[in-house]
Amino acid sequence: MGAIKVYRLMLVMFAVFLFLEVHEVSNRRNTMNGFRKRFVLTLVLMIVLSVVGSASLVREIRPLPLWEKESTHEAYRIVVMSDFHLGVDDSFSETVKNKDLIAEFLERLVISDIDELVIAGDLLDEWFVPISYEPHNDVGAFFEQVAENNAFIIAAFKKIIQSGIVVAYVPGNHDLLLDEETLAKLIPGIIQARDVDGLGTYRTGVRSEIVIEHGHRYDSFCAPDTLSNKEITGDYPSFLPPGYFFTRIASTSVAEGKSAPQKDFPKIEAPSKEDADQLEAYTYYNVWLWSMTTFPIKAAFDEKAIYVGVNGYDNSFSLSDLMPTVQDDGSISAVLYANAQRRWDEVQQNNRVATKNPYSEATVGAVDHTFFDKQAVKQYFDLDPTVDVVVFGHSHVPVIDRYVEGYDKEKVYANSGTWIDENLIGLERCFVVIESGEQFTDVRLMEYHADGTISNTEEK
User: Fold this and answer.
1) 310 CB neighbour count, 10 Å cutoff
2) Distance between CA 435 and CA 79 in Å, rounded?
3) What's the pLDDT score for residue 68?
4) Which of 87, 279, 355, 366 is the least crowded, having the fewest Cβ atoms under 10 Å away?
5) What Å distances lie between residue 383 and 375, 378, 388, CA to CA?
6) Which residue in 103, 144, 110, 108 sits closest to 124, CA to CA?
7) Which pLDDT belongs to residue 72?
8) What class does CATH assign to 76-220+346-459?
9) Residue 32: predicted pLDDT
10) Are strands 325-326 and 332-333 parallel, antiparallel or unpaired?
11) In what order do the strands lie in the sheet with 454-456?
12) How many CA atoms, within 13 angstroms, populate the side-chain half-sphere of residue 109?
């Protein structure tokens, strides 16, 4: 519950107390003096709480000191944020305590002399949902519920747009199924950068020298997959990747307090080093083994406990459907995403990956943030000399890397981090600020602190 909500609840409780006291007085004689004493004591307490609460919970909305120089409008000023992970239910959402801070930050952006706000994916979260939560079949209605649960943040985005600031969005993996029509309805006037289903790349800056995307295009667990599981989804253009199932399992484990006992998962021996195909399948197996061991759930290994009712699915699946095992022919595969390694090159082609990544590298990379950081160089700086800045989200690890050697000017990669309540793998509440001019582009990675101050992460 947000701090402001707690304060309002205190006022409601006070009103209820007064009502009950007055009711009691009306039914009993000679109690007025006692009531007055209790009333005065309670009133004093509420005044104290009001003063303390007002001081700590309601801060004056002031401009953010984002820029080192006074505005001359010679530069185009951009803020990039990502990975809000706003959830449908605060009982399990990853972003609850930080919601007031997000709204406050967005309110301050309105008066902070910026030209553009870019949301680099994972705004609304449809993946981090425990398997015990009420299933849904209408993904549009689901995202409307998410927006309703975070109405004051959605209102803040609308206010930014109404102020004349450009607000742009690229899809993330957790909002992979958030379609253009639904988002336009939730946040009218937002610009959407999309290329294929579930992906988008946004170019901005005075010289279009800045590229922004979420980053899930490059790892095999989160990149949209239009080729797998067609025996289940048929002619429906499904594209949910394995990461969807991983996140449903992980959120279930967290909701259960990680209290489930470890299971005895199937053991697979490493294949011959000469068998590249099966080595890739073995890598996929090991990532799932790590996932199910790190995030145990109470459902039995063969229990059909994971219901999926969207994107062409209307089925319940088990852990055993996901975990690769040794098949009758000796190959390593699973029911879901069977032999996915054999389709990976085509998946990358469909997803417009400029320089393809080997399957094993893209699979292990799903849990290694440095893999995504390297993609900025591999997919952009080494291929397109007009790109000077790349910003990703996705990994939740805020970093900023500057490259000079091998280029005619400095190239900058930044990851904008996340705004979830507890980021265990990096700084919290980070964002990227960019000033783009005709002859320069200045990039800084900043952190927003709980007291409302900001700091440059490179100066720590």
Assistant:
1) 18
2) 9
3) 76
4) 355
5) 11, 7, 11
6) 144
7) 52
8) alpha beta
9) 44
10) antiparallel
11) 191-192, 166-169, 116-119, 76-81, 430-436, 441-448, 454-456
12) 33
Which pLDDT tens digit goes with each residue over 42-94?
444 454 444 444 334 457 889 999 997 655 558 999 999 999 999 999 999 99
Please report the DSSP string for 91-134 in residue order.
Answer: TT-S-STTHHHHHHHHHHHTTS--SEEEE-S-SB-SSS--TTSP
pLDDT at 60: 84
The DSSP-derived string for 57-69 is H----------SS
Q: The whole model's pTM is what?
A: 0.88
Residues of the chain with pLDDT under 50: 1-32, 35, 37, 39-45, 47-57
Specify the residue for token string 């379609």. 179
What pLDDT, on a 0 to 100 scale, did the predictor assign at position 74?
81
Answer positive or negative: Cα dihedral of 109, 111, 112, 115: positive
The token duo for 267 is 């053991």
- The helix/strand/coil state of 403 is strand
Separation of alpha carbons 18 and 307, rounded Å: 49
| pLDDT value for 290 | 98
What are the structural domain ranges in the chain? 3-57, 76-220+346-459, 230-342
DSSP 210-224: EEE--STTSSTTTS-
> What local confidence, expressed as pLDDT, does residue 53 receive?
42
Q: Which residue has the tokens 């020298």?
A: 209
Phi, psi of 35 (to 5 degrees): -65, -45
